[in-house]
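Sanity check

After download, print the first record. It should look like this:
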Amino acid sequence: MYDFHERLSWSLAGAHEPFWQAVYKKAFPNLSHTELCDDLAKQKQGVDRVLYLANGNVLYVDEKKRERDYPDILLEYVSADTYRTPGWMEKDLAMDYLAYAFMPSQRCYLFPWP
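Expected C-alpha cells:
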C-alpha cells in the first residue's frame, strides 16, 4: 500500500533532479527548461513536470518512479481497492508523456500518451 502524499513528497524531494534532467535532455534535444509541478490539482491530472521546448511547445509529463528494479511496468487500474478508486490507467489525464523510471539502475521508459 502506498500513501499518495508520502509518494508525492518523495517525488518532489529533488534528489533525482539530475537524473530527470538527463532523461529529458536526451529525449528532447531542443529542451529549454523544465518545471516541477507541485500543484495538487495538476498532480491529480497526471502533470508532474512541464517541459518547455525551444520551439515554444509545452509538454506535460507524469513521472512514475520505482525504488527497486523490477522486470515489469506496473499499470494502475485501481488506486484504492477499498474504495474502488480508478487508477491512473483509467483516468483521462492531461499528460503528453508517461516517464516510468527504475531509480537504482537509472533506467527510464518514456511513453507518448494519447
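If your output differs, re-run the checksum step. Summary of this record's structure: The first helix runs from residue 4 to 12.
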